[in-house]
Amino acid sequence: MASSSSIHARLALVALLSATTFYCIHKYRRLKRLKTLSLSPSTRRGKIFFISETGTSKSLAQRLHKLLESNGIAFDLVDPTSYEPEDLPKETLAIFVASTWDGGKPPKDGEFLVDWLSESAEDFRVGSLLLSGCRFGVFGVGSRAYGEEFNAVAKEMSRRMVGLGGAEMVPLGEGDVDDGELDRMFQEWCDGGYKIIGSHSGVKICRWTKSQLRGRGGCYKHSFYGIESHRCMETTPSLACANKCVFCWRHHTNPVGKSWQWKMDDPKEIVKGALDLHTKMIKQMKGVPGVTPEKLQEGLTPRHCALSLVGEPIMYPEINALVDELHGKRISTFLVTNAQFPEKILMMKPITQLYVSVDAATKESLKAIDRPLFADFWERFIDSLKALQEKQQRTVYQALSVKSNGEYEVACEHAHSCCVLLGRTDKFKVDGKWFTWIDYEKFHDLVASGEPFTSRDYMAETPSWAVYGAEEGGFDPEQLRYKKERHHHPKPQAVVA
């Protein structure tokens, strides 16, 4: 929702404050990478450690070990009671499946290993490079009923490994033994979170897609713009990026570059592959509590595509052809770019909504936060914001912080995601009512017509429950709010006679 005011004002005027700026979770084709590393003659065999009390973590570790073996990847399954922790600096690949027991402590079979990590990390004589040759991943198994102690052991191990120089090749995974989805969460963690398409694209099933399939509410885009979260596909045509942002969860194992240097897949094949893999993941939700046959059937026909999974989608040379392919199937497009390719923004055909990430307000802070590859990154950033003004369709500044301004008001909120939407009152407020939602059918008709159009031509009235200040807090009343019961175990109390 671009403004015509100065660049510095535009930096402070934000259309969206969204946690999803940071929720770009990177999980690569892990099995392939593990296979390459484990077969290298200069490396030891990878290790899978289980720290288990009741056998749950052990069975998960055994499942992962079997999966790796079936893919020809050499790993040893390790009981920590028979392992010497001082050998850990010799390891090149280590995976931990760790349970948390009463009091946030590890089960007995893992006490020595966990204590060794803690003591080593706190010993100034050891140094911060002890595990610099080790890449690792940690999956925690615990119960949220224990509050702050939930997966305390896994969190501690991850922190200590990093503190000793280990490279965390995948974000910490956390499983809850009480929510009925432990197996699914572990499988997603093992699979890498998203599926690879061809040589440079990916697709993922979002947790909000799963949530609305189960009738438990949609994401902020449902509250703000009226998308159907259970019919939204999250994908990207480019796993590569021109930034190495400090907050990125990709852990910088994806390719980086200032221009396209890779084999290019056909846009039709990317869209086909994304839809095929997406529908397969939707089908896996069959039988999950709350998923009705009607919702499942709707989910098999996506109406929206979030081009924001990982990397920089606008780098893909055939991005316009890919967007055309989606629009031809009447699938709306929400594209996020990192403000380093202004010329690409200018050449983009109309899309449903274009986001530009605004991660900092000064040249120095942008360099420190986004760590861009381009030497002229600031000029590109400014030009990207200017390019946003030229777009006649809906635009959004997705930023880290916001400032008040007379043209903008808080229009909507999604309390669950801790984010709000600031909208231009002169564009999206009519007769005292907000029109932040999108008439998707009208948008597709406008695209098909080939005639020029603007954001006003396909806006729709925002329902009362999504407007800021409503008691629903952005939660659709047609959905069933799910609040998990917490059974906190009382801690032993001292008895004084």
From TrEMBL:
Pathway it belongs to? tRNA modification; wybutosine-tRNA(Phe) biosynthesis
Recorded E.C. number(s)? 4.1.3.44
Q: Which UniProt keywords apply?
A: Iron, Iron-sulfur, Metal-binding, S-adenosyl-L-methionine
Which residue ranges does the record assign to the Flavodoxin-like domain? 46-194
Query: Does the keyword section mention Iron?
Result: yes
Q: Which Pfam families match?
A: Flavodoxin_1, Radical_SAM
What is the top EC class of this enzyme, as a single word? lyase
Would the keyword Transcription turn up in this protein's UniProt record?
no
Gene3D superfamilies xrefs? 3.40.50.360, Aldolase class I
Physiological role: Probable component of the wybutosine biosynthesis pathway. Wybutosine is a hyper modified guanosine with a tricyclic base found at the 3'-position adjacent to the anticodon of eukaryotic phenylalanine tRNA. Catalyzes the condensation of N-methylguanine with 2 carbon atoms from pyruvate to form the tricyclic 4-demethylwyosine, an intermediate in wybutosine biosynthesis.
Q: Which family does it belong to?
A: Belongs to the TYW1 family.
- Protein name (Swiss-Prot/TrEMBL): tRNA 4-demethylwyosine synthase (AdoMet-dependent)
Species of origin reads: Brassica cretica
Species lineage: Eukaryota, Viridiplantae, Streptophyta, Embryophyta, Tracheophyta
